[in-house]
Amino acid sequence: MNFEQVNIPEKLVPDNYLQLGLAAQRSKQRSFKELLEKRKLPKNGWSDERIEELVHMLASLDSNNYPHKVGLGEREARIACKLVARRHYNFGHGIGRSGDLLEAQPKAAGSTLLARLTNALILDLIRGIGLPSCAGCFLVPMCTGMTLTLCLQSLRKRRPGARYVLWSRIDQKSCFKAITATGLVPVVIPCLIKGESLNTNVDLFREKIKSLGVDSILCLYTTTSCFAPRNSDDIAEVSKLSKQWQIPHLVNNAYGLQAKEIVNQLECANRVGRIDYFVQSSDKNLLVPVGSAIVASFNESVLHDVASTYAGRASGSQSLDVLMTLLSLGRNGFRLLFDQRGENFNYLRENLRKFAEPRGEIVIDSRFNSISLAITLATLAGDQMKSITKLGSMLHMRGVSGARVIVPGQNKTIDGHEFLDFGSHRSNLQVPYLTVAAGIGITREEIDKFFDIFNKCWNQIFQTKNEKIMSLLETTIK
Amino acid sequence: MNFEQVNIPEKLVPDNYLQLGLAAQRSKQRSFKELLEKRKLPKNGWSDERIEELVHMLASLDSNNYPHKVGLGEREARIACKLVARRHYNFGHGIGRSGDLLEAQPKAAGSTLLARLTNALILDLIRGIGLPSCAGCFLVPMCTGMTLTLCLQSLRKRRPGARYVLWSRIDQKSCFKAITATGLVPVVIPCLIKGESLNTNVDLFREKIKSLGVDSILCLYTTTSCFAPRNSDDIAEVSKLSKQWQIPHLVNNAYGLQAKEIVNQLECANRVGRIDYFVQSSDKNLLVPVGSAIVASFNESVLHDVASTYAGRASGSQSLDVLMTLLSLGRNGFRLLFDQRGENFNYLRENLRKFAEPRGEIVIDSRFNSISLAITLATLAGDQMKSITKLGSMLHMRGVSGARVIVPGQNKTIDGHEFLDFGSHRSNLQVPYLTVAAGIGITREEIDKFFDIFNKCWNQIFQTKNEKIMSLLETTIK
Amino acid sequence: MNFEQVNIPEKLVPDNYLQLGLAAQRSKQRSFKELLEKRKLPKNGWSDERIEELVHMLASLDSNNYPHKVGLGEREARIACKLVARRHYNFGHGIGRSGDLLEAQPKAAGSTLLARLTNALILDLIRGIGLPSCAGCFLVPMCTGMTLTLCLQSLRKRRPGARYVLWSRIDQKSCFKAITATGLVPVVIPCLIKGESLNTNVDLFREKIKSLGVDSILCLYTTTSCFAPRNSDDIAEVSKLSKQWQIPHLVNNAYGLQAKEIVNQLECANRVGRIDYFVQSSDKNLLVPVGSAIVASFNESVLHDVASTYAGRASGSQSLDVLMTLLSLGRNGFRLLFDQRGENFNYLRENLRKFAEPRGEIVIDSRFNSISLAITLATLAGDQMKSITKLGSMLHMRGVSGARVIVPGQNKTIDGHEFLDFGSHRSNLQVPYLTVAAGIGITREEIDKFFDIFNKCWNQIFQTKNEKIMSLLETTIK
Amino acid sequence: MNFEQVNIPEKLVPDNYLQLGLAAQRSKQRSFKELLEKRKLPKNGWSDERIEELVHMLASLDSNNYPHKVGLGEREARIACKLVARRHYNFGHGIGRSGDLLEAQPKAAGSTLLARLTNALILDLIRGIGLPSCAGCFLVPMCTGMTLTLCLQSLRKRRPGARYVLWSRIDQKSCFKAITATGLVPVVIPCLIKGESLNTNVDLFREKIKSLGVDSILCLYTTTSCFAPRNSDDIAEVSKLSKQWQIPHLVNNAYGLQAKEIVNQLECANRVGRIDYFVQSSDKNLLVPVGSAIVASFNESVLHDVASTYAGRASGSQSLDVLMTLLSLGRNGFRLLFDQRGENFNYLRENLRKFAEPRGEIVIDSRFNSISLAITLATLAGDQMKSITKLGSMLHMRGVSGARVIVPGQNKTIDGHEFLDFGSHRSNLQVPYLTVAAGIGITREEIDKFFDIFNKCWNQIFQTKNEKIMSLLETTIK
């Protein structure tokens, strides 16, 4: 709606009062115009009202919202439940078309705009936080794992004869399942253990390329963000191999958009080598509900291969979440969260060290991991290593989520492949440990509360252990 | 919240007034209890208020909504934008876990409940409309095509040596792309042409099984709901082949849950043969926004294979849409829509016949298609066959969406496979035609408006054609 | 926001798709333009989305919603709670100014528009349903009683020497309190009893005018809508008196806008005599939450006196409710409710007669009451008249609200005035009765359910009574 | 709804996951219990979700929300428009009954609870910020002026022979109209001028009491919060008169709840004398939309007189706004706003002084006004006093609202009473001035922006004036 084309009678409102109100609209209208014409993230976040006005206007461009619509097809974006329509701002057509996530829909100009505008804003964000070479990206309304699968599938179309995926081990089920789902053959490259931290075994990558043969290898597959003490893979070195042998390189950057160090690593790896796709979770990086991932590339032309591998039309709900979130944050709002995360990581690390030292534990030095931290539980566990797992549930019971206890001896088979000491990203784990992470959005208050609770749980376990020992001693003496 | 444990002082409200209010709550509480304990679709639809109360309560069971939460992980379902949180009722954790869509999440009891309750209600719905043998089903937050891909991928895990998918031709891109995405090899089984309608070539299926060998065939892949004049595949006969040769059978039932005839066909096919999975779109059948599909099976044990092929955690937004929609409709509300669709299909067919006859056209007799109808455009097109395509855009411009004009000679290559006369599900199409569908949710008013507009467009094209002929004649005479 | 001034790049959406969407906006824009320029109720109701778009746009014209606002006053419409702001669509400034409900606010062009547009639409509605002579009206965000007080106060400014208000008795507390609140002196004119129904005693009005003297009388005060068996006052005859003696005439038309007969009576009374103000409840007539009344007049010039008697700025929330409701109903939607109410009244009366006859009761013939009905409870009560009151609470306990039981002997004193048989609008009531009403919005289903419940309660009381008599007889016999 | 009475099957969610979720509900349930049982403002604000859960639960206790309701009355809280119902959380019955704002409604236990709980929380707030002697209060859904009228009307019922209201002059229309609306006779007590500030003329009050006679005086009527340079009335001294002569004392405390000084003054005045009612605006003090006022008293028994003077049932919407706002702020949230206001007032005053000094103006020393400030415009105006009014609109045009320019010579007649120099609270104003206020919710950023804009406007006017003088000089010289 637009008041300026309406001759509002003086009887309704005095014209000088009205003019003030109309003048105030103009800056808003300018912000809409700029957003749509320049497709850049606004500097400052928008108000809820402004965001909703844009979203409503976009939705009104879709045919299911035309007042005079006549639907004679099998899919007309009819929505039976008013509450559902309302929560989707009357968007119903989804995004993409005929098996291509990036295609426009004739029935749904608004949904098309929504999807493409969102992708443009994400690109602007990615470039702004330290990846100026990023050439393009788009949101896929599937999880990171499935999106990695989609990338592998699209690579297979390019390299139909290749069947191996060289994968630097990381113990997260869906990263691995992303390979097995495609029917391709995973080749696990174990990490190098340095101290207690884990690094990419670049030499082994090279050896495998030679031994398996370049043509039989679909791609090299690395991971940045991960649980300590595993470090972010050395993607610069792997990128060099990728460039040298002309083998595609796929990076699982699950929650790496939130860390300056990883962002820099990606930009640098592209300069010295080759990355075909880097894939990241929307929810973990952009603070939206679970449900989508972002495929990005330094080479725009290869992106479309991935988009056209999605067989159908997809949910637009995730694009809407990301669009609304980015507009509400603005460039400054995201930057603030980004910087605070970095500071909170340092705060967490420092406090974890202070916690560890007097208790005879250490914070493992995984210097190439700037999100997650691991503290050993050697003294606490003693020789009752398995019993230490209850620390995790004790923390959980008290409201701490996300802290994980890793103990030796947890083997696991996934789709026929056995992983020793699953969870630790390595075989032959000796010392149990606990990991915690400073994810984007974490508050200093949460960190403080965590140490309170951690301390209480620690003491409780410690005391129990000592009592057991004492009673054992007593029994022995008698 | 629960008033009954609260001693509301008389100063706030007289007790006898309060008791009346509390009594009214009890029937509501009973409906919640029944829903959760019995997991059946309520007979009558619920009010918006009741639906939202349930949804809010479920969300409050997720850890991101605990008042005392302390998040130390990399994924804590933090939601940055209030508007986004609000439209998701504060759900953030998605569904599934560790690469299994059906697994429970320790951090998210509410999301787990949401997903499983939704699946239970869908199952109850499917059984109630004519598929009592259905053993289980679940919602996948991806489109139908990608869900078919997921099924194929999970079948490959069972039959790693097989590489062919025998597919009864249907000209919808994503159905075909669902195969090529997996890297499997599609074997196209052209339809039999009978009159102008198209039927499954069961004999050719049999021949191909013999010629390619059972072990090399991953599955038989058929489609029910489709555009006329293609008929629903003869899934009963294909099921028999499937049973006889022990080859899996996958059915693309995209919008088949809305048609009694197709539902009966499925139930029957299972009795006489074998169907491993039948997959349907949520948006097309259940009137929710685009974004999810339902995998169902007559054999519960094989369902989990599909769920565990999804590599990651998935969006819960689609489960929420379906849950809210089913609760708002109730069993009776859905049944009403279901029955009305049947009546409206008859109404549309009858009126299409009345429209066709005086114009020298026919409604093609595709008797095994109970959703879509095709009317020939032979006389209208005359020898200007290609020009008839503009009829489609004329209709679209006037608000009619979903009507499609098919003309001969539209060849298309998808992922390396060429399809002659793409769109017509056959080669060597002679007569152009228009298809329209009576999808669930269509109204009689829409059908009437369609014929108004169709008539006007027809006359306009017809007149233009005659004028061209006249002027041609005139030129000739001169 | 207005897309037409924005050059949306082809990269975001193909222009031909966009144009279709934009074309669909134009009919909407036309509806906004027409509403604001013509200030007439739309023929058909608007969709929720359209209503909210208008409301949001109006709110954005208020200074508290300017992006660049700087508030240095004591009242800046700051809203602390987001939820509150949201439910008021960010309206905060209320309506009116400096003690005049109709004045525009320099700070709030949108609120001013909201209030005046609402008044214009109400006027259009009132004229359309049978009061074409109505010259003006406005919404007062106070209850009907307080609005009547406001009218009396404004009349006093015109007639400072007058102190009597001649009031045709109606036993509703707030009608009477509306007089005593002002400090004026009520002169009660008892009704004439005809059969069991009650009519205006016009002769007594005339006598009182003569005996008290014209100048000492502030106004004549009548009531239309009321509980049976009281009839609507004979406002035509009272209007003649008003005209003849030049004494203002105030009509309490609480829920009279919903009845054709009352509307006609008002229009007719104005033709033959004089009505200064007629006041009606918004909630009872327009189905909004309790909270406002409408002052209307056949003489626009006197309306402003009332508006300028309101000492301050008032809530705009009620105007918003009425505006949204009228737009959602449209002229046709209200007309439908209006007509259905008439039919449901006939249905209720007929069924009440069928209920009464076999039980030896009658439906009192109050033919000038077309909303409420009274059925005698003579046989049911027998000589246990007081005990019949429990019938009311029995109905209430079973979900029936609004049915009232009136028994003789309930005297009451209000602000120093004693009313015998309060509730019956008369003294010396003999026969107890029950009243029910067919208000606007009632459904046939409710009426049917009422008779089910009424029947059960009746039988229960009847049986108890008989058992008492029997046991009494038995005792006597023994 | 209450999960604890439901046996949620393990199939839906593992019990240990569910138990964590349920445990998290308990603290929420405790907060509800405590609120309703103790009726005290929570220490910390509640989340939106918690507030809405309470509000929905309250609404579900009203009969219009019973699933089995059968409405046979003339007022059944039917709501025609879904959007309206939604924004009122399905509350429809309003508050109060039969002409008494404090009475419970049998049909609406929830609305009754809503109203009374809100009143209880307001009382707790008032006591907590420095008025521990406050005995009771309630919200009236009318503006402050009309609520003052209501108080006067209820006082008249107690003192029917009295007709004068002794009123310390304040130039705000609705304060005065509050008297004239009642038909009582205002006796204006001009302020004492001390420097340029204005103080209560207590002696004149005393004289008037003597000259008019105690019995003829309905009440003394003072005002606390007001525009500088008028000071808050000396309510302590007036209270002493009130006590001494046993004449009621009514205090207009429009926006006085936000200032520590005024709150202390009220508490003290009650100790040394008598205040019957003090009335304050909800929107100005509690940051809700315009529409209600709060009547408070140190004597609970006299409050009911006011409540029972409201002739009808009133809107509950304002109670809802206040309830939601208070719960969202909590005691601490309000305290923070309250303290910040005080600091911002000091900041504004300091900056105003810095602004005034170099320009040859002064900030008038109205030390008993702790909200509003006045700066003289003597030098700016020069001898073009009237032209200075444009400063106001210049500020307004630039987004500054609430700053008022007062110039000599603006006489005004209200309801027959003439006020010289209206706006200045005095006759014979010499020096023009500008007032600004630091209301609750003002931000430091706003104050800074104000001085930017003020400075620019000042310079512009100053320059124009100088240019005029120069050109005048030039003309003269020539």
Automatic annotation (TrEMBL), chains A, B, C, D:
User: Could you say which residues bind substrate here?
Assistant: R97, S98, Q105, R313
Q: What is the annotated localization of this protein?
A: Cytoplasm
Reactions catalysed according to its record: O-phospho-L-seryl-tRNA(Sec) + selenophosphate + H2O = L-selenocysteinyl-tRNA(Sec) + 2 phosphate
Q: Which residues carry this modification: N6-(pyridoxal phosphate)lysine?
A: K284
Q: Which Pfam families does this UniProt record tie to the protein?
A: SepSecS
Q: Top enzyme class of this protein?
A: transferase
- The residues that hold tRNA are R271, R398
Q: What does this protein do?
A: Converts O-phosphoseryl-tRNA(Sec) to selenocysteinyl-tRNA(Sec) required for selenoprotein biosynthesis.
The protein's name is: O-phosphoseryl-tRNA(Sec) selenium transferase
Q: Which organism is it from?
A: Drosophila melanogaster
Record lineage: Eukaryota, Metazoa, Ecdysozoa, Arthropoda, Hexapoda
Recorded name of the encoding gene: SecS
